[in-house]
Amino acid sequence: MPTDAPSWVGMVPAFLVLSAVLFAPGWLVVRALGARGLEALAVAPAVSVGVVAASATLLQRVGVRWGWLPLLAVTAIAAGIAWLVAHGLARTRLGSAHPADLTPARRLLGKPRPAAVAAIAIGFVLALVTILPAIGRPDELVDSPDAVYHLDRIRLFLETGNLSIANPTFYPNGFHSWIATGLLSGTADVLPGTNVATLVLAALVWPIGCVALVRHALGPSRLVTYAAGLASAAFVSFPTILLGWGVLWPNLMGTALTPGALALMLQAARSRQVGQWLGFVAALPGLALIQPNSLVALVVFALVWLVTARVRAGVLGHASWSAVGRDLGLVAALVAVGLLAAPLVSARLASTQSYVWTGRVSVWTALVEVVGGRLQIASVLWGLLLLLPLGIGWILLRARAAIPVVAMWLACVVLYVMAASSSWSWTALITGYWYNDKIRLAALAAVPGVVLVAASAPAVRALLRRIPALRARPLAAALVALAVIPAATVLWDHGARDRMLITFFRPGDPSHVILSREAQAQLRELSTSIPAGEGVVGRPENGTPLMFALFGTDTLYRSIPIPTTGDEIVIGTGFNDLVNRPDVCDALKRHNIRWAIGSPHVYWLDRPERSSGLSDLDHNPGVEKVRTVGDYTLYRITGC
C-alpha cells in the first residue's frame, strides 16, 4: 500500500467534524424547544440539516458565501428563535414547553442513561466491524453512476461556497450541504470525506435513532435497550445495501434519520409535551431537504400509528365503533385525495412516479425478499427470519403498546410487494414517492423492523427461562438471549454482507468499474497539463466526470449519463464535426472547454447515442493529440 494512502485512523478528525456539524446545531435547537434526553439527540441531525440546507440556500440569494461563520450565526439565530418560542408558550394557556420539575442544567444537558450509551456503542462497533473491512480504504470509490453526481456536487459546493438547493440544478441539498460544510475544515478530500460521512450515518446516527425508537416502543428496560444496539446491525437491507446501491446516499441519510424522528413523535404523542411536538415539527424540513420520500415515510408511519390507535380504541371500548369508522373513513378519503392530487400539483413528483423497473417478481418472491432478506443475495437470511416472528409474537402477547410498530412494518412489506410485483399503473401513485424502487422500500422496512428484532430478546429470554438450568439464573438467560441477535444476524450473514459490499466497491467485472485506482492516477497525471480555469470534455462513460470531484479539474460532464438537452447534448453529439459546426464551437466557448480526453474504457451504463461525437478523437480533425497516459489520451481543441 502506498505510504500516502489514507487510513481510517487518519479519518478520525473528519469523522468528528462531520458528526459535530450534524448533531450540534439541531441539538441546540431542539433543547431550546423543550425536547430532551436521547430523543433530542436522535432527532438533532434532521434539524441540523434543515438549518444548514435552508440557510445556505437563503444566504446564497443575498450573496453571502457559506462557511463556518454563517453556520455559527444561523445556529445561534435558530436556537434563539426556538428559545423564544418555547418561553412564549410558557406564558400562554398552551403550557410550558419544558417539564416544570427540571432544573436549568437538566434542561440543557439532560441525563444520559448508561444502558442507552452502551447500546449505542454496541451498534457503533458492530457497524464498523461489518463495514470497514469490506470497503477497504477510505478513498475507495463505490462503483455506481449516482456517485459521480453526488461527489461532483459536493466539490461544486466546496469550490463555490454556494450550497443552494438550486446549484447547479434544483435537487435536495441536505446530504451535500452537510458534507460540504464538514469538509470546509480540510480534514479530508471529497471522496474519503464522503465515505466517512456514510459511516457517520450508518455507525452513529442509525444506532442512536434505533435505540431511541426501541426504548419508546418496548420500554426502557436494559434488556431491550441492549437489544436495540444489537438489532441496529441485524439487517442487510439497511444500511448495507444503501452504502452501495444506486448509490442512494441521500436515501441512506433520510432512512438513518427516520428512527430518531419517529421516536420523538411517539414520545410527544404519549407525553403531550408541547416542546417535544415542536422538536418533531422542526425535524420535518430537514428530512424533506435530504430526500422528500423520508418525509413521506414519516407521514406513512404517522398515519399507520393513527389508524392502529383508533382501531385499538374501538377494541378496548374507549371509543364507539361508529366514531372509529367515521375517523378511519375520513383518513382514507384524505389519503386518496392526496395521492391523486399530488402528481397533478407537482410535475417533479409525477416524473418520479413514472420510473419503471424491469424484473418484476411474483408476490411470493417479493415476500421472501423483504421478509427473508433474500435481496441481491443468493440465500434467505434464516436467522433474521427466525427473529422477526419471535419479536412480533412477543409484542402481540406481552408488549401490545408496540402493536402500531408491527403495523408500520407490515405497511412497509405491502409497499415493497407492490413495488416489486405489481404491474398495475395505479400502484405508482403510492410507491412512486420511492421511485417505485423496491430497494429503497426494503431499507425503509428496517426502521420498524429493528423494533421487532429487539423484541425477540425478551421472547428468547422467556423461552430460555423454561429450561431448569436457567430458571434460577435470569442474568445468564438474558445474556444468552442478547447473544442470539448478533449470532443469528451479524455472524450468520457475515459472508453475504461482506460479499455485497465488496461487489459495490471492488467489482470483479472491469466494465462495472467507473474509475480504477490506476485510472485515477492516469487522469491525475493528465490534469497537470490542463491550465487552471480551462475545461475538458470526454465521454462520461470513460470516467472523466470524476476528474472534477477528485482533482478539481473543470469537466463539462459531471454525471453519468449526460443530459439530453442543452449544450451538453450539442457537444456530445456534434463534437466530431466541430470544424463545420459553429453551434458546437459556441457551446464549447460558453463553458471554456479547450481540451478533450479519449479512452477505450467504457462503463456499463453506456449511452453512446448521447456522446457519439466524442467516441473516436484520433480521427477528429478539430483536435490535436498532446499526450497519452495509460488508457487516457489528452487532446487540445484546435478546430474552433
UniProtKB/TrEMBL annotation:
Residues spanning the membrane: 12-33, 40-60, 66-86, 115-135, 196-214, 223-242, 278-308, 328-347, 377-397, 409-435, 441-463, 475-492
UniProt-recorded name of the protein: Glycosyltransferase RgtA/B/C/D-like domain-containing protein
Pfam family, one: DUF6541
InterPro entries from the UniProt entry: DUF6541 (IPR046671)
Keyword list, A-Z: Membrane, Transmembrane, Transmembrane helix
